[in-house]
Write a structure and sequence with these properties.
Layout (H helix, E strand, L loop, with lengths): L7 H7 L4 H4 L4 H14 L6 E9 L2 E9 L8 H36 L12 H8 L2
Antiparallel strand pairs: 1-2
C-alpha cells in the first residue's frame, strides 16, 4: 500500500468505496483527492468562535474564524490585498507622523523656541490647560 493510501483522510474516503474502485485510483488522482479533501478541513485558527443562537423554535449557528491566510490568491484577490495593505500602511504612517509632529511641537513649545514670532497654533496653550 502506498504512503498516500495510508493517509487517514484518504483511507476514510477509500473505505466508503468498493475495493475495485479503491484500487483504480492512481497516485496522481489520490494527490488531487487529498488536496480536495484538505480544502474542506478546518485547520487551527487564531480566532475560532462557534456558537448556536436559539430564536423562537429555530436554532442558528455562527462561526467566526480568523488566522493567517495560507490559500493561493487569485490575481484579483492579490490586487485587492495589495491595495488594502497600501491603504493600511498609509493610514498607520499618517497617524504615527501626526503624533510625532505633535510631540515635537509640544517639546519645542516647552523649550520656549518660537519659530514664527507672534504666531501660535494654540496647541501649547490647550496642552497646558489640560494640567491645570
Amino acid at each position: 500500500m502506498s504512503k498516500l493510501k495510508a493517509d487517514p483522510a484518504i483511507r476514510s474516503l477509500l473505505n466508503r468505496m468498493p475495493s475495485d474502485v479503491q484500487d483504480s485510483f492512481t497516485e496522481e488522482q489520490l494527490v488531487h483527492l487529498k488536496v480536495a479533501i484538505g480544502a474542506r478541513q478546518w485547520g487551527k485558527h487564531v480566532v475560532d468562535c462557534r456558537g448556536v443562537i436559539k430564536f423562537f423554535k429555530y436554532r442558528y449557528y455562527f462561526v467566526l474564524l480568523a488566522g493567517r491566510n495560507r490559500r493561493e490568491l487569485s490575481k484579483k484577490e492579490q490586487k485587492i490585498a495589495a491595495i488594502s495593505q497600501a491603504i493600511t500602511i498609509s493610514m498607520f504612517s499618517f497617524f504615527v507622523i501626526t503624533i510625532l509632529l505633535l510631540i515635537i511641537y509640544l517639546v519645542k513649545s516647552a523649550l520656549g523656541i518660537d519659530i514664527f514670532s507672534n504666531y501660535s497654533f494654540g496647541v501649547w496653550a490647550w496642552f497646558k490647560e489640560l494640567f491645570k
